[in-house]
Amino acid sequence: TLPPTDLLVRLFHEEQPRVFDAMPVRFGCSCSESKVRQSLSIYSARDIEKMTTDDGRVTADCQFCGAHYDLDPKSVGFEAEGQSDG
Ligand SMILES: [Zn+2]
């Protein structure tokens, strides 16, 4: 059997394949509550109000990892009250 690199070169020698060093792959999504807050920070209090559920929460689901974020509408958007971390 051939090492994958040699096999690749044999198959695609005309294409001059480049083989990158192996990189460790970690399962995981880089989403976080602060990123959700950051993405919501472009909205005004009025927009946030439209996103607020009947329960009085702003929720967001990550489409990659399925994480669910449940935020206080008062704490998101650029008009947020008492933002601690900017
Ligand atoms: Zn995620």
Topology of helices and strands:
Blueprint (H helix, E strand, L loop, with lengths): L3 H8 L21 H8 L4 H7 L6 E4 L6 E4 L15
Antiparallel strand pairs: 1-2
Zinc ion binds next to loops.
Task: Record keyword descriptors for this entry.
binds zinc ion; CBS domain Like; 27% helix; alpha+beta; single chain; 86 residues
Order of helices and strands: HHHEE
- Strand pairing plus helix content: what structural class? alpha+beta
The level 1 CATH classification is Alpha Beta
Low-confidence stretches: none
CATH architecture annotation = Alpha-Beta Complex
Please give the largest β-sheet. 2 strands, antiparallel
CATH-derived topology = CBS domain Like
Q: What percentage of amino acids are in beta strands?
A: 5-15%
* End-to-end Cα distance: 57 Å
Helix percent band: 25-40%
Task: Put the structure in a nutshell.
This protein has 86 residues and is an alpha+beta fold. It has a single domain, classed as Alpha-Beta Complex (CBS domain Like).
Structural write-up:
The chain is α+β, with helices and mostly antiparallel strands. It has a single domain (about 25-85), classed as Alpha-Beta Complex (CBS domain Like). It contains three helices and two strands; from the N terminus they run αααββ. A two-stranded antiparallel ribbon has the order 1-2. The N and C termini lie far apart (about 55 Å). It binds zinc ion (ZN). The site of zinc ion (ZN) has 6 residues, from loops.
